[in-house]
Design a protein that fits this description.
It is built from 15 helices and 38 strands. With about 625 residues, the chain is an alpha+beta fold. It has six domains: about 90 residues, Rossmann fold; about 70 residues, ATP-grasp fold, A domain (Dna Ligase, domain 1); about 120 residues, ATP-grasp fold, B domain (D-amino Acid Aminotransferase, Chain A, domain 1), CATH 3.30.470.20; about 120 residues, ATP-grasp fold, B domain (D-amino Acid Aminotransferase, Chain A, domain 1, 2-Layer Sandwich); about 110 residues, Glycoprotein, Type 4 Pilin; about 70 residues, RNA polymerase II/Efflux pump adaptor protein, barrel-sandwich hybrid domain (OB fold (Dihydrolipoamide Acetyltransferase, E2P)). The strands form nine sheets. An eight-stranded antiparallel β-sheet has the order 14-13-10-11-12-15-22-20. A seven-stranded antiparallel β-sheet has the order 25-24-30-29-28-27-26, with helices on one face. It is globular, with a radius of gyration of 27 Å. The termini are far apart.
């Protein structure tokens, strides 16, 4: 029997494992880096040990020994699919909660994994491997292609190649990103199926020969080859196809002697499916399977590691579950990651466990936490479960729309729009869904205007609360009317706080305090919640969430940047500088490559010209807005 588990992970992942251990009466040990000293997973564990890196095997083994742990759970990500880590844990006399090192190794190299699956009779797409450098492909190679990293996933090292002219640069770039992320720059190419569904089968296997296939999950809605929304079951899988997928997944697991929880991923197109990869760990999206099948997969992982046997047949599925990944990123700005303090983080109606029509929140952050560039930008997963797919989508969309997310920009509005989109509700999802559609913010022009009015009224209400019964906008110096200005998405709304602020032809003032304003708009009474923070005001109403930037009456002088400047779009580290001063550049040519939140971000020339200045230095950290280079158009 396991008594104390070291959780070799962080954030939401670690909290999920800790919750399962608590339910089993097992003590937990957290590990943390300097940036996570006050993180929730540290506070919720029974004890914690500081480590320099979450991926340092020796430090993790030492931490387990120091805390008296007798088992290690790797979570997902980091070292969860590292056969060397699993072997080191077992050699240290600790229980490894996961598949055998041999099973992990067999699936860790995706090229070799495909060869094994071919022997097991699992359908495959043709594959062309590249080593750490580009080699000439066969002359009859057909396009488009998708490049992938052989040693890992998560979108790192993935590139779409549409012609032979793009292949060499794409292989080199993908190889560099793969080497940085996984220590192995090997990539491979396979045909790109542009209107395919991405489906995966959850498997669970014990040490006594029983293997469960717990249905499939649909994971087709993706950005940058990373999943954004997952659901179970898939709206595109028939009962006959479901049985075939389950049989293929069980054959894959049996072929490598698999134990524990794992996922077999497939591409589905034209009624046929093809093996993609096998993840020898728990998946981020495992909660939708838990909801539909009524199981706790982490608890079952632990019990299997203790030697427990699964019942002969898995439970039957009931209902539908949908999960969305809430990211700190701006979809309107090429999905750029966002940083800063999450002042308020609340999702209404969340329950700790599923009930009919229930909601679940798996999160690594709470209100007041700082979002940094050190880790993946995923803030949380929000999951809805209901008897039908339509009911789950509606429940989830409403919860997200009314969530209080006061801090950096997130993909919340996009997620709500997707959940309410007719094509999604009809089940028409595939991996190209987000490239075919553009999604506007939830709050339209009128919502921004009325939210700015509410913010101005709330600000005007401050002196009334502190100085007594004084008129809104009262000043002790005779001057021109006071003006309030707010900025949202580059648009500035000006309002006068003395003349006409308390009512307008469209909005009738009802009441106002510093945190809440009530307006009657076109005969409908609406409540606006107003929250003030340094440099921003968040306004929440049924018209949609709005983030405004208050502008001063007398703006501070700003530093003028020279024309053609290329600022850093986000905080990060300069990975490479691909030009020199005096070089000619073409429109769209890469000038600098930044690394932020585990991904490469290319800073390109907006127009052709000559590099006049270059301040970016490889290896140097930069803040958002830091000038990296200056391109002078048409000059030499």
């Amino acid at each position: 029997m396991i008594r104390r588990v070291l959780v070799a992970n962080r954030g939401e992942i670690a909290r999920r494992v800790i919750r399962a251990c608590d339910a089993l009466g097992i003590e937990t040990v957290a590990v943390f880096g300097d940036a996570d000293a006050t993180a929730r997973h540290v506070a919720e564990a029974g004890s914690a040990v500081r480590v320099a890196r979450y991926t340092d095997v020796e430090q993790l083994i030492s931490a387990a020994r120091a805390a008296g742990a007798d088992a290690v759970h790797p979570g997902y990500g980091f070292l969860s699919e590292d056969a060397g880590f699993a072997r080191a844990v077992m050699e240290a006399g600790l229980t490894w909660i996961g598949p055998s090192p041999e099973a992990i190794a067999s699936m860790g190299d995706k090229i070799e994994a495909k060869a094994l699956m071919a022997e097991a009779g699992v359908p495959l797409l043709p594959t062309l491997a590249f080593g750490g450098a580009f080699t000439e492909p066969p002359a009859d190679l057909t396009y488009p292609l998708l490049l992938k990293a052989s040693a890992g996933g998560g979108g790192r090292g993935m590139r779409i190649v549409r012609s032979a002219d793009e292949l060499a640069e794409a292989v080199e770039s993908a190889g560099r990103e793969a080497a940085a992320a996984f220590g192995d720059g090997t990539v491979f190419a396979e045909p790109l199926l542009e209107r395919a569904r991405h489906v995966e089968v959850q498997i669970l296997a014990d040490t006594h020969g029983t293997i469960w296939a717990l249905g499939e999950r649909e994971c087709s809605i993706q950005r940058r080859h990373q999943k954004v929304l997952e659901e179970a079951p898939s709206p595109g899988v028939t009962p006959e196809l479901r049985r075939a997928l389950a049989e293929a997944a069980v054959n894959a697991a049996r072929a490598i002697g698999y134990t524990g929880a794992g996922t077999v991923e497939f591409l589905l197109a034209d009624g046929r499916f093809h093996f993609l990869e096998m993840n020898t760990r728990l998946q981020v999206e495992h909660p939708v399977t838990e909801a539909v099948y009524g199981v706790d997969l982490v608890r079952l992982q632990i019990e299997i590691a203790e030697g427990a046997a699964l019942p002969g047949l898995p439970p039957s599925p009931v209902g539908h579950a949908i999960e969305v990944r809430l990211y700190a990123e701006d979809p309107a700005d090429d999905w750029s990651p966002q940083t800063g303090r999450m002042h308020r983080f609340e999702v209404p109606g969340v329950e700790s466990e599923f009930g009919e029509g229930g909601l679940r929140l798996d999160s690594g952050i709470v209100s007041g936490d700082e979002i940094s560039t050190f880790y993946d930008p995923m803030l949380a997963k929000v999951i809805a479960y209901a008897p039908t797919r339509e009911a789950a989508a509606r429940r989830l969309a409403t919860a997200l729309a009314f969530a209080k997310l006061h801090g950096p920009a997130t993909n919340r509005d996009l997620l709500v729009r997707v959940l309410r989109h007719p094509e999604f509700l009809e089940g028409g999802t595939d991996t190209g869904f987000l490239t075919r559609h553009e999604f506007a913010p939830l709050a339209g022009v009128d919502a921004v205007r009325f939210s700015a009015l509410a913010a101005a009224l709330a600000r005007a209400a401050r002196p009334r609360e502190t100085l007594g019964d004084l008129p809104a906008g009262w000043r002790n110096v005779v001057s021109q009317p006071h003006r309030a200005a707010f900025e949202e998405a580059g648009e500035i709304t000006y309002l006068h706080t003395r003349d006409g602020l308390r009512s307008s032809p469209e909005a009738v003032f009802v009441s106002a305090s510093e945190s809440e304003v009530v307006l009657e708009i076109a005969g409908v009474r609406r409540v606006f919640g107003v929250a003030w923070y340094d440099g921003a005001v968040h306004v929440d109403s049924t018209l949609g969430p709005v983030r405004l930037t208050p502008l001063p009456r007398l703006p501070e002088p700003v530093v003028q940047t020279p024309p053609g400047s290329l600022p850093a779009p986000m905080p990060g580290t300069v990975l490479r500088v691909e030009v020199g001063v005096g070089d000619e550049v073409k429109p769209g040519q890469t000038v600098v490559v930044l690394e932020a939140m585990k991904m490469e971000h290319r800073i390109t020339a907006p127009a052709g010209g000559v590099v006049a200045e270059l301040t970016a230095v490889a290896g140097r950290q930069v803040e958002a807005g830091t000038p990296l280079a200056v391109i002078k158009e048409g000059e030499r």
